TrEMBL record:
A cellular component term, taken from the record's GO annotations: plasma membrane
Gene Ontology MF terms: ligand-gated monoatomic ion channel activity
Protein name: Ionotropic glutamate receptor C-terminal domain-containing protein
PANTHER family documented for this protein: IONOTROPIC RECEPTOR 20A-RELATED, IONOTROPIC RECEPTOR 60A
Keywords, comma-separated and alphabetical: Cell membrane, Glycoprotein, Membrane, Receptor, Signal, Transmembrane, Transmembrane helix
Family that this chain belongs to: Belongs to the glutamate-gated ion channel (TC 1.A.10.1) family.
Gene: NCL1_07912
Coiled coil stretches, renumbered: none
Species the sequence originates in: Trichonephila clavata
Membrane topology: Multi-pass membrane protein
InterPro entries documented for this protein: Insect_Ionotropic_Sensory_Rcpt, Iontro_rcpt_C
Transmembrane parts of this sequence: 268-284
Amino acid sequence: MILGCTVYCLTLYVSEAHIYGTTCGKTPEEMFINSAVRSTGAIYRALLGQGIVYHPKAISCRTVLGTWFMGTLILTALYGGSLTSTLSLHRSPRPVDTLKDLLKRYPNAMIAVKDNSQIHSYFKKSEVWHHVWLTNIQKNVIPGKLHIEDTMIEVHEKRPERSPIYVWVAERSMLVKQMHKYTEDPSVCDLYVAKEDIVRSDWSLALIRNSPFLLQFNEKINRMQRFGLLQKWQFESWNADRGACRPTDGRNPTGKTAISITDTQACFFILSIGWIAGFIVLLAERRVDYHHRKQIVKQNEIFKQRSKNFKKRKGRKRINMTIADREIPLSIISDPMH
């Protein structure tokens, strides 16, 4: 912006001082260069927080100055909003998506599993997770009679700072279904469901071979899927209960990047349009000013010519009046024969 103002002023200075400087009869206060200097001075004072004392007379300078203030207003608002959101929003470390990464970050994490569940049996017998079972899981097995909501309350219980993190390993569908109820702020997810699939299991319905209900069962299931009944149930009873907190997208809502130059492209687009409009108006003003100067020069030449003619006529009239008033002897005009 400062470079643009400098180029703008230099253009006006060259055009004023070297092209029209000798033929212009205007005072220095009325020249274009003063308008440009005042515009640039106003911009510099605005940058220093001193405000504007007066506005420039040139329309192009006002266009450039108005565009500058519009751009600075937008950039200031964006910076203020980004700074406010950065300082005021809840900040939390980015969650991990694997159990190994979690244990690397929190070696003393308390990993809880439900007693006699599939994941409990897997960790207990797995050779890969044997060390994790002994150090992090064995003492944190939740009794099987404990209700799901009570388990979630214990997992989400407020703990002192730097205390071991509490992790619950269970079925993904049940976790996603229940976790949003224990989030205090709907815009901030305190709980996070990792992406890692520790154990996969297949669920099925057992029907007797050649059962007469098999064809009816398959037909009903296909009709439910074809008419969108399954999607309706999922939307009404599943997605609606999840609320505004979407913790399973793999992103930390509190770890969003700040506003960058890429996000302010519209502001620079407005500034560029303003600068282009200012220079177009400048060219138009220069064109009008050129014709105005040309008319002034012609009027000055006509005025000088009329002044010269008037002085000549006035001089001749004075000479005639002097001759008429002068006294001439009679001997000069009498006939010598007499």
